[in-house]
Predict the 3D structure of the following.
Amino acid sequence: MTAPVNHTPARKGARLASQALEAVRYTSLIRNLVAKDLKVRYKNSALGFLWSLLNPLLMMVVFTFVFTQLLNQHIPDFPVFVLVALLPWNWCATAISGGTTMLVDNASLINKVYFPRVLLPVSGVLSTGVNYVLSLPALFLIMAAFGSPFTPWIVMIPVVVLTQALFLIALVLILAPLNVYFRDTMVLVEVGLTAWFFMTPVFYDVQSIVSPALAAWMYRLNPMAAIIEEYRIILYHGAVPDPLFMGRALMTSLVLLIVGYLVFTRLSRNLGEHL
């Protein structure tokens, strides 16, 4: 007698694919969620969006003073060096902080209206990504003021932005449902972001501190370090980005995105009961 064929993995894969396609069909809802998040963020703020520019610019001034005057660091065009990394790091930190609480903050909406829950953390990453993209003209002005090179390789910036967006979405897809079940998640995230900031070469050049072999491992274990290095290669050095380096960072983000989506799908089944 022939053993029955187990179609469970195939059914599970088809179900996940169907859920992903359903989320794609809600693009108008994603736009509305992004617009809502941006409006809420700058509501009753005197300077509004300008705060997203002033904050990194002020931090750039502080880092420049501390590392060039007090610590006597000799990195050419240090303000550009820092700002090129600080802007994407701010996107990372704000996206993860906001994305982790996105499901809890929208509990009433989740319990009243049906829509793919995955859209909430995704919209949080995209809204902070809009802030990052809108801050790039300020970065370009600083680069022009310091005579930084604008090379044709700047057209590769959207690829790096896409890589970072996929990476951040993957993280918040894991953290957002965890925060529903374990409310201490946000506390751990805040501590983790502080440690992660110092482990990421935002205000220092990792290759001048450690050996090339150790730097390579840092890029492998810390995707944000690799992403920031790509920004620096293109915008600070004006050099040709390494396609293998960029490809590895993009593939890492895609793999993490798949893992994050699977985790979110598994944990989001009983969200309503815990919100």
The two ends are 49 Å apart (CA to CA).
